[in-house]
Sequence to fold (980 residues):
Amino acid sequence: MPDKPAASDWPLLGRSTELSRLSECAKAAHAGHARLVVVRGPAGVGRTSLLAAVRRDVLRHNEFLVLDATCPETDREIGYSTVRALFAPAEVADAADDVTARHRARVGAKWAREALTASRSAGADMPRLLHYQVLYGLFWLAAEVMTDRPLAIVLDDAQWCDELSLRWLEFLLRRADRLPLLVVLGQRTDTHGLAQDILAGMVADSRAETVDLPPLAPADVAELAGIALDDRLDPLFVRSCADVSRGNPLLLRRLLEELARSGVSTDATGAGAVARVGGAVVVESALDRLVEQPEPVRAVATAVAVLDGMSGDVGPQSLGELAGVPPRQVSEALDALRRIDVLQPGSLGFAHDSLSASMIGRIAGEEVERLRSKAARLLNDAGWAAEDIAGHLMLLSDLPESWMLGVLVEAAACAQRRHAHGVAVGYLRRAIALGRDEAARPHLRVDLARSLAESDPVAALRQLDIAISETTDPRTRAVIAAQFGCTALVARRAPEGVRVVGGVLDELNLVVGDRPSPADRELLAMVEWVLLATGTVERSTVGLVRARARATTPPSGHSPGERQVLAVMSALAADECQPVGRVVDWATRATRVLPDTGDWAILHAARALRLADEVEASHAVYGWIADRGGEHTSAGHVLALAGRALLHNSTGDLHAAAAEGDRALAARTPGQARTAMPEIVRALTFTAQDQPDRADHLLDLVEGPRIEEVVDEWRFYLLARGHARWVAGDLDAALEHLLACGRALAECGVTNPVVAPWWVGAVSVLTRLGRTAEARRVAEEGQDLARRWPTPRAIGLGLLAEGTASAGTRAVELLEEAVRVLSTSPAQLDLAHAERRLGAAQLRLGDAGAARKHLRVSMDLATLCGSTALVRTAGRFHAAAGGRRRQSGRSAVDNLTEAERRVADIAARGSSNKEIAEALFVTVRTVEMHLTNIYRKLGVSRRSALAEMLPGTPPRHRGHDDGPPGRDAHLGVPTGAERG
Fold:
């Protein structure tokens, strides 16, 4: 790149029109018609350069005697300082002496001479009459000069001219109408001086002209850039230079000089660097302009910087208090800051992003600390929100005043309520580090752990552990330990949680004794349920809590703590096949008041209800968390979605299962301890949808040494992997995983046959491998378990497994009974598998007609459920039985289940939901659920459309009832039915 030009070498571009106007005014003045021209513009717009060009190219050329000066800001209160500067040069002084010598008799010469030679305090001590005499004497002196040649007075930075000198110029212009006089004033529009009103009056005169300097045009920017950098400029680069400099010549020159030093290329790739380099130049230029401002303006600018981000809502009173400036001067200072482009027009926002930080960086650290502390105090006294004040407190190196700690704690609570846990963590860490109240520190750690649990649960455990050690009161320790246990669940540190919670619970029992108060009884219940819930997670602790639960007397459920204990006990009881009615009763009582029941307890109760085929109740309980993710813990939200996925999978709605699984996968937050359940339940759905490779891919993502320790994840992982291998045709691997699933359940004391019904698939795989004796043995074990948990689904699966392991008419009889029982359960996909098995058994006996009937039902149910794998398998048997492929033009009505068809027929006749429920002996909630599915399947949105679509055809299936499939179809868990 070429060497940059010196400052004097920069050409004056884009000012030809202004020079022409000034030249015309000079000609008029030369001809004896006095003129005033005010050249106006902000700093850097080229005002001084234009005045220099006028002196050089216009006034000297026309033989004017030129008096010129620049008004310094420091002299604006010194009377006649500008007049003395104008007449100071030797040439002018000699002329003045000459005139005075020739006209000593005139008293005006003496008056002028006295003003020109007065001390720096001249004007301050003169009597009022003498001011007029001085004005007259100076006028007479100027008039005498103009008898010899035209006079031009060029004054730059006139906004800072002292008042007496400006009064003289005004006096001179009023009396020089026919004299050869030209007065050219350069005025900055981005700052005001003391004589602003005088200037405004002079500009209003009819003989005055104003020349406002605009920004440079793009062509001028391009020419200057070419001079400074390179003749070959990309248009995008030039446009970037124009945008950054805003056409300000001084700013543009600084930008170009910096670009030249930085070696930035002038092609399109260098355009991006212009903004980066220019940002610093713009900020530096703004700071230079700020330095020129009076002290009150700089003080207000500093106050705005300290309050940056909220100063727009701070009144002049508070802003003035922080700046140490009277409120009446604050508005004037803000106007000045906007004129020099430090603040944005009409607001208190800075014109440049980094300007605030640059201003603060120029202030000594102690002063910044003082200002920030003062700002926080002012805002606190004015009643500002805690989070607004906390922003200033976070920047302090100490919290010397007691109210400051309270503000940080309140701000953290506000952030937690709006789920801004990262912000709350920052406030609380600061409060713990700088707070001087030792007694408050454990409570601060508990609050900190509550926010950390969402993103860094291991760090949350460390804070809770310290808080427990800092606390001596057993009851307070128990409360903290309960939070420790819940956090250990999220952090996947269940053994550590059981150790800490168990130890604190034993200590609390000793303190409260045999007859605890109601408050102590509730506290004991709260810690008890946390211990039970924490211990159910991993293999090393599940046996301990099962024994503890069996020895615990079930509470009544009248308080939140008791309901939470009942919730966990219901799930543990369901695992051990305690009476179904008892399990449902405990879970129902536990979820009677959902808002005051914790996430983890809700999940246990929902699981118990799911295993008991209480689909509606389970769906509602899961939904309390799943559909309100913003109101619950992130981990609880993810597990609720996965749990509802298992629920939908058990009812056979795989379309909903896939959607819910995707929601669960997407719901995890960064840094959260990863539960593998979303991948596992989604893998189960992929398998049923005949995509075992995708299922294997998801399961590969969750493999690891810790997964074997996590009870739920490990058994469902084995079940999902076994089903995927089965559908893929790898029967040996499938059997290995399914049998391992059974062993994992037994090790944890789980005897419920529908928790993870591995045995149904194992029977089918063993049969396919020709190991019929083993198949019958596993089927018999499954039947024994099903009898201990006599829900329709469990009994139906037991019959399905035994029928699969049998042959001939015995197989048909068992499978017919399986179809009958499963038709009364909500397990529609299991029913479809039973229909397929029954059709295959009838085909082997030679009854092709009966086989086709059941295989068609199986394909229809599998289609509605979304099980592509079962549709494929059933279709193969259907073809072998002589069936033809179903035409694709089926009516949408054919997609309705029998229960849905019955509801639709009654609804089409105009009956209300309550009337339908009474007619079918079901709940109104069940009717609403069926109508939701009916509208979705038929593609209608109102009840009146049903009559047009239902021709009154008889129900399609044999009289089995579908049961409630769930109101909102979502993701599911491994069904107990076979996959191949």
The beta strands are 35-41, 65-70, 151-156, 181-188, 208-212. The chain is about 65% helix and 5% strand. The first strand starts at residue 35 and ends at 41.
